[in-house]
Each structure stands twice: as C-alpha cells, then as structure tokens.
Amino acid sequence: MIRFVDIRKEYDNGTKALKGISFRIDDGEFAFLVGPSGSGKSTIIKLITGEIAPSEGRLMVNGYNMNNITPRQVPYMRRTLGVIFQDFRLIDKKTVYENLTFAMRAVGATGRDVRKRVPYVLDLVGLSRKADRLPNELSGGEQQRVAIARALVNNPSMIIADEPTGNLDPKRSLEIMTLLERINELGTTVVVVTHEKELVNRFSKRVIAIQDGRLISDETGGYYNNEQEI
Ligand code: ADP
C-alpha cells in the first residue's frame, strides 16, 4: 500500500517538483500515473523507491514509514517492490535464465528456490522457450517481458513500471500492458507511469493525473475520458 499525505518535494536547486500531493493506492489495485513531461511523475516514483526523500508530508510504502526509514531498512523495503524501466536494464552478458537467477541470488535465494521460481515466472510472461537466449537475441517486447519476469521473481507485493512501453511499437505495448493487467489479476499491485493516452484509454483502470506538481484528477475509467486535455 502506498500513501502520500500532502507530499511536497523541493530539489536542492529550489525547483518545487511536488506541491502537496495526497493519494493512496491499496494492495491489489492497478493504477496509471499520467501527466505531461516535467509534471512530477519520476519524482513520485523516486519517492516510492526511496531514492529521494520528501521535503514535507507523510509517506508510507508497503508498511514502511518513509519519513524515518533507516538505511538498514531500505533494502528490505525495496524487496517489496519490483521496478520496470523503459530501457529494460537487463544484464547483456547473461541469458534470460541467468538474469532472473542473478536477481534471486542477490537477495539470498537458494538453488532450489531458483529452480522452482524461475520457470514459473518465465511461463507467466510467455518466455519459457527463450530461457537460454541473451537479451540482444530478443525483440524489444520480449526484453521487456524478461524485465517484468525479473521484477516478479522475488515475489514483490507491488510492481512499479516507469514508462514500460516507451520503446515499443503499439502492438507490443498493448501486449505488455495486458501482461501487467494479468499480473495484477494474480494479486500483485501494479502502478504504471505512462503518457500514452490511447493505451490508457484501452484499459478501464484508475488514472491518477499529475500536472505541475499537483494531482489534478483521480478517477477510474480514466482522466482521458474527460473533456480536459493534458
Ligand atoms: P516527469 O517525470 O513527470 O517528467 P519529474 O518528476 O522528472 O517529472 O520533474 C518534475 C520537476 O522537477 C521538473 O521541473 C524537473 O525539471 C524537476 N526536477 C526533476 N529532478 C530534478 C533534480 N534532480 N534536481 C532539480 N530539479 C529536478
């Protein structure tokens, strides 16, 4: 569960990126976070992952109070999150299977855990037959599915996807979004940052819209269904 209570973020150079934002995303929800470039979306994501701290306001992420989280607690908090990026961020020299194994080993999983979990997540993303490929032997859509599998492999309670379809054509984008929807239906909370209006409109989901550091709309079925444009 994510809870922002009147969060403000001012960067060191004086830029006020967030000007008092409040919202809550409950366990099991699917939410799009939309807004034009510079509106504050990345700042929100970085606050959730603990990369930056709020200037003011209260912030809870999956049971952790981010206002007074200790450096020692941060890695445990991060394990509750699976993060996916526009540029996939896979390890080039490792196969699909090894990329997933590496992510599990990094948090202390045993060989037995790996042998059980990796085939399950590969099947979930439809890549069982490509386990031995290197990332550059896969299409962009497939690489993003590997990144999704990697985000899921340690069984986080929440997936945060930051412009996950930014590098993909419309057909692959729709496949990725449909996969994220399926993952949500299996019980994982999913938050997707995007500015792809048509894609958002194909899913009848909650849409949290940010503009100029403020929350301007929060509706199910989509801000983009309103007459207002961003
Ligand atoms: P978005 O992800 O919606 O494009 P950001 O959260 O990246 O928006 O940026 C919000 C505002 O904060 C912008 O005005 C941006 O220039 C500013 N900003 C982002 N990161 C920094 C930073 N590290 N230092 C100073 N200003 C920043």
Strand content: 25-35%
The distinct ligands, each listed once, are:
adenosine-5'-diphosphate
Here the CATH topology of the domain at 1-80 and 195-225 equals Rossmann fold
**Name given to the CATH architecture of the domain at 1-80 and 195-225:** 3-Layer(aba) Sandwich
Quick one: CATH superfamily of the domain at 1-80 and 195-225? P-loop containing nucleotide triphosphate hydrolases
Taking the sheet with the most strands, its summary is: 6 strands, mixed
Low-confidence stretches: none
Average per-residue pLDDT, rounded, comes to 94
Structural class: alpha/beta
What is this structure's SSE topology?
Layout: E1 2-10, E2 16-25, E3 30-34, H1 41-49, E4 56-61, E5 64-65, H2 74-78, E6 81-85, H3 96-105, H4 111-124, H5 140-152, E7 158-162, H6 170-185, E8 189-193, H7 197-201, E9 206-211, E10 214-220
Helix pairs in contact: 3-4, 3-5, 4-5, 5-6
The chain binds adenosine-5'-diphosphate.
Describe the structure.
There is one protein chain. The protein has 230 residues and is of the alpha/beta class. It has a domain at 1-80 and 195-225: P-loop containing nucleotide triphosphate hydrolases (Rossmann fold, 3-Layer(aba) Sandwich). 31% of the residues lie in helices and 26% in strands. The chain has 7 helices and 10 strands. It has helices at 41-49, 74-78, 96-105, 111-124, 140-152, 170-185, 197-201, and strands spanning 2-10, 16-25, 30-34, 56-61, 64-65, 81-85, 158-162, 189-193, 206-211, 214-220. Strands 6-7-8-3-9-10 form a 6-stranded mixed sheet, with helices on both faces. Helix 3 (96-105) packs across helix 4 (111-124) and helix 5 (140-152) runs parallel beside helix 6. The longest helix is centred in the last third of the chain and has 16 residues, at 170-185. The radius of gyration is 18 Å and the shape is globular. Bound molecules: adenosine-5'-diphosphate. Adenosine-5'-diphosphate is lined by residues 11, 13, 15, 17, 35, 37-43.
